[in-house]
Amino acid sequence: MSKEKWKLLFRKMKPFLGVVFLQSGFAGMDIISKAALNEGMSNFVFVVYRHAVATIVMAPFAFILDKKIRPKMTLTIFGKLLLLGLLEPVIDQNLYFLGMKYTTATFAAAMANVLPAITFLMAWLFRLEKVKLTSIRSEAKLIGTLATVAGAMIMTLVRGPNLNLPWTKPGAIDVHPQGQVSLEHSIKGAVMIILGCFSWACFMILQAVTLKTYPAELSLTTWICFLGTIETAAVALVAERANVAAWAIKWDTSFLAAVYSGVFCSGIAYYVQGIVMQERGPVFVTAFSPLSMVIVAVLSSFILAEQMFLGRLMGAVVIVLGLYLVVWGKEKDYETPSTEEKLPVQKCLEGCEHGQPMEVVTGDGGDTSKS
Hints:
By secondary structure, this protein is an all-alpha fold.
């Protein structure tokens, strides 16, 4: 394979590698965060420390690497940055972790998988997603999005018989213990998590829009984390005004949770999803959210020798099939630029130089026109 073909293949695979990396990082966040919250850490303070860590880590890279491409800051852009810092760091994460406190890590992870469906609908409304109900590709995107949500619910709610894989061991501890949660707490937690997902979807849409006028991903990430730190700190000061001890942090699970989620799930995640969204759009990014559950199930089976149940396997298969439908449906929406796309234009120019009219096929494969 030639060097040019390798470059083209890597360019096509880059969005997929990016979202898989994202979901691999998210896979352990729920477990670590739940452990820190169970030990008494305030969810409001946790979100502050998380974004403070992300700001410290990302700021040097943004200052150096974005120096030549960073656009001039305007009042409109700054307003969008303030709103971005409010939507995800303040509203989404606080509601999500509050919902997790009322329920379990498994329940929270399962409910969060409504994100792809919410994002798909919002992107459709804001015309960031191409949808034609009479098109088979649009139908594939819609069905695939619903399938990923359904697969995640199957993995969580359906147990089934033990598959007795040779590398697993009986009696292994489940990394996603269900726990005993009352119906009242389940309802409260579900409402908070769904509202948080709505805010997260708004964040994804606004980030995609902001990147069009502020295409410096590292700087945008740093601004979101920095402003998010300030805004979450203001909320935490009010929420924990009578509890000064809530701000104390020790070298334990709470410190690990703040560093891990800050570096991987805020700093790097905002940056990577921004790059992927510029090529494939917000729906592509969120469609892979249920993949983290598959990653956790596979890794826990091999590394921790946990038992694999039929329900998890069925849910994983449904998620993979759903992702395939989404990717296939979006293939024509966000194609990677290649020589094949430039060829009709080049032919047109060459034909015009010789005084010959050329037929040019439109980008959507529709009618041809004379030039």
